[in-house]
Amino acid sequence: MTPIPPEDTIRSADNLRDVAHAKSQTVGSIIDTLDSVAFTLGSTRMSLWDAAVGISLILIVILAAWSSSKVCGTLLRRATRLDETQRVLAHKITSMLIWAFAFFVGIDLLGIDLTAFAIFSGAFGLAIGFGLQKTFGNLIAGLILLMDRSIKPGDVISVTDQAGNESFGQIRRIGIRAISVVTRDKTEYLIPNENLMVNQVVNWSYSSRDVRVKVPVSVAYGTDMELAERLMAEAAKDNPRILNAPPPVVLMMGFGENAIQFEIRFWIDDPEDGLGSVRSEVLRRVWKLFRENDIVVPFPQRDINLRRSEQLDRLIAAMESSEKTSRKT
Question: Looking at residue 276, what is its pLDDT?
Fold first, then answer.
């Protein structure tokens, strides 16, 4: 195998050493000391000074690429003609191009001949493919999600934790590996981009931010149904989060074992503020209006019938005997 000759890097290090000698003898002596510690690989001599110059070039290239990416992100955020999704997509593509350009510039500055890796390119590519398969998969999935606009920053989606509890979260950002979703209790979920591509996702704000909420309510038999329906509709209309168009409606859903079952249905346009809170507010208002108008919210009642048997008769006799004994004492 032909060794990788970093002649360009060594030539640059020698030029810097000559300039340092001309400017300062102290700095020149330090550089000579670093240059004296070296090893030879084939026909190439590498010293600590050469390594320091190479590392410095790498750091400069990385810093330049990072700064360019940040500047592009700032400029894109100021672009008023682009929406949030288009800004994120443009920033990701621009960042990928900048880092790819920085990689090849760094290779050129270090004088590395990539053709020398031809023998190992197959094994190296296979190893990279297996090791970074998920990373590249998530990267491509994130770009696809941004391009088809099915998932975008600001959307409200349903998030299910490991215990199976469902909660609502708002997408804060879409990263290279995962999206960041923040729920109402300030829990931040990091969901891999691939999961959103292959699994079913409930996006509450995909085509519209309007969400219909259902609140079940039961009233006792014998209640004035028209009054109960009017009070439930009033409780929904009094809530500032509930939309007036379409207006809230109250539907009778059926006759239960212990109560007549109703359902209040209404619309909101701020699902990121939570559905449980608006349900609670409506139920509190319903409870207050029901109490003011003497409407009863029923609870289950059961009648127990015992069948006569010999064992039951013995139990009753024993209980009566015990009761008589306790009275005598």
Answer: 82
